């Protein structure tokens, strides 16, 4: 065996916390009346089935990175941290329209946070909790001092307004947190995982290769009719099997949420807030019921105004709760994300 | 074979809890969607509660075949065997 000096590993620290929270809510408001111009439905039906009154969507000239930047600046200000102090930039998104380079690398440069390592996480509606789990680990291991996690989506780019399984639920937006060292642990052990057996229950209806092949075919034959046929759905958009997803999201995720509380070493009555992914008000209500939350626990219900914004929904909902109830700052929030994959993640955090 | 009357009574309680409908309205020939106006989300809640109450498994793909209350009672009776 070759002799070599012992390697120096990172020096772990005891605890981490969310130091600051920021958001960006795009300004195009899509109400149910507008939705009903696209699908045969009614304001009453949509409210009853989903609890959604409006969703916010971004204009065409506003990108995922633009929204991420706005939320990140807000979070940095809230944390009192300079971008140059960041040691990791994690962007959770499924709507950055480039396979590569990442939204995170572009964001790092915009913020002036280079050369911080920067990468995107593809975990759909669990993306924010996945990001927090990773940032917590990076900081606690001593690899990084301050990490930025952004959940950002421009879902309006990947929906078909005329389909009725999921598109009418969805909105755009961004939420960000700065995570750093803390003498008192402010982020619990994460419970996260996947269930790829249900890969097809929610996600894109086809891959971009289908569009590529149709383009090639049209160029070769001179016949563009397939490209123009709306029924072909060549631009991949989201679909879901609502019943399967609902069942998993409530009864499986209730178990995950309970496990997260157990791992954190707390009981439901210790919480100030419960912030589940804003998928559907009926899921939020049923999950809250399953968890038997005491009355004083505030429940994030941002979905009524913001719609389902995937990776952005938890920080957006937490931010709204804190705006409306400043006294929850310093209290504990249980957050749980779940979605396409299927994937899920949950942890308890001290609210900044 | 489990007692179908008992299953109907138990199922009616679950439906009442979810929808607020009177248990007397929950009859075998009633269609969940057409007669009882139960949407897909409520149906899933009813199914999961029925699984727990009767200790049976009702897979997602089976739920689509449960058109009437009677279909559900039969399925649960057979599954509980």
From TrEMBL, chain B:
GO terms for molecular function: acyl binding; acyl carrier activity. InterPro entries: ACP, ACP-like_sf, PP-bd_ACP. It comes from the Bacteria. It is found in: Cytoplasm. Residues 2-80 form the Carrier domain. One of its GO terms (biological process) is lipid A biosynthetic process. Pathway: Lipid metabolism; fatty acid biosynthesis. 4'-phosphopantetheine is transferred from CoA to a specific serine of apo-ACP by AcpS. This modification is essential for activity because fatty acids are bound in thioester linkage to the sulfhydryl of the prosthetic group. GO terms for cellular component: cytosol; membrane. Keywords: Cytoplasm, Fatty acid biosynthesis, Fatty acid metabolism, Lipid biosynthesis, Lipid metabolism, Phosphopantetheine, Phosphoprotein. SUPFAM superfamilies: ACP-like. PROSITE patterns: CARRIER. The modification O-(pantetheine 4'-phosphoryl)serine is found at residue 40. Belongs to the acyl carrier protein (ACP) family. Carrier of the growing fatty acid chain in fatty acid biosynthesis. This is Acyl carrier protein. It comes from Nesterenkonia sedimenti. The gene is acpP.
């Amino acid at each position: 065996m070759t002799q070599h000096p012992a390697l120096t590993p990172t020096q772990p620290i005891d605890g981490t916390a969310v130091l600051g929270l920021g958001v960006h809510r795009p300004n195009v408001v899509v109400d149910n009346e507008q939705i009903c111009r696209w699908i045969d439905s009614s304001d009453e039906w949509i409210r009853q089935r989903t609890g959604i009154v409006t969703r916010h969507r971004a204009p065409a000239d506003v990108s995922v990175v633009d929204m991420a930047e706005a939320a990140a600046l807000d979070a940095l200000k809230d944390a009192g941290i300079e971008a140059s102090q960041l040691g990791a930039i994690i962007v959770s998104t499924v709507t950055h329209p480039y396979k590569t380079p990442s939204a995170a690398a572009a964001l790092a440069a915009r913020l002036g946070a280079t050369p911080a390592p920067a990468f995107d996480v593809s975990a759909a509606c669990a993306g924010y909790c996945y990001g927090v789990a990773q940032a917590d680990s990076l900081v606690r291991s001593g690899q990084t001092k301050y990490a930025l996690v952004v959940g950002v989506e421009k879902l309006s780019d990947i929906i078909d307004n005329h389909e009725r399984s999921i598109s009418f639920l969805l909105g755009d937006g961004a939420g960000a947190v700065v995570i750093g060292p803390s003498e008192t642990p402010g982020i619990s052990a994460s419970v996260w995982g996947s269930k790829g057996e249900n890969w097809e229950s929610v996600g894109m209806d086809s891959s971009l290769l289908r569009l590529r092949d149709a383009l090639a075919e049209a160029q070769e034959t001179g016949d563009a009719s397939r490209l123009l046929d709306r029924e072909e759905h060549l631009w991949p958009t989201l679909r879901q099997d609502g019943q399967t997803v609902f069942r998993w999201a409530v009864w499986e995720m209730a178990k995950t949420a309970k496990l997260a509380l157990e791992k954190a070493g707390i009981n439901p009555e210790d919480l100030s807030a419960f912030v589940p992914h804003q998928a559907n008000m009926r899921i939020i209500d049923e999950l809250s019921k399953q968890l038997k939350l005491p009355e004083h626990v505030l429940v994030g219900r941002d979905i009524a105004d913001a719609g389902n914004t995937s990776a952005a929904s938890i920080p957006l909902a937490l931010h709204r709760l804190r705006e409306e109830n400043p006294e929850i700052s310093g209290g504990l929030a249980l957050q749980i994300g779940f979605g396409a994959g299927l994937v899920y993640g949950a942890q308890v955090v001290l609210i900044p | 074979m489990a007692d179908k009357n008992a299953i109907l009574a138990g199922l009616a309680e679950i439906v009442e809890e979810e929808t607020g409908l009177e248990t007397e309205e929950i009859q075998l020939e009633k269609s969940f969607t057409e007669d009882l106006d139960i949407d897909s989300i409520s149906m899933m809640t009813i199914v999961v509660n029925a699984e727990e109450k009767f200790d049976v498994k009702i897979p997602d793909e089976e739920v689509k075949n449960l058109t009437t209350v009677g279909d559900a009672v039969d399925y649960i009776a057979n599954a509980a065997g």
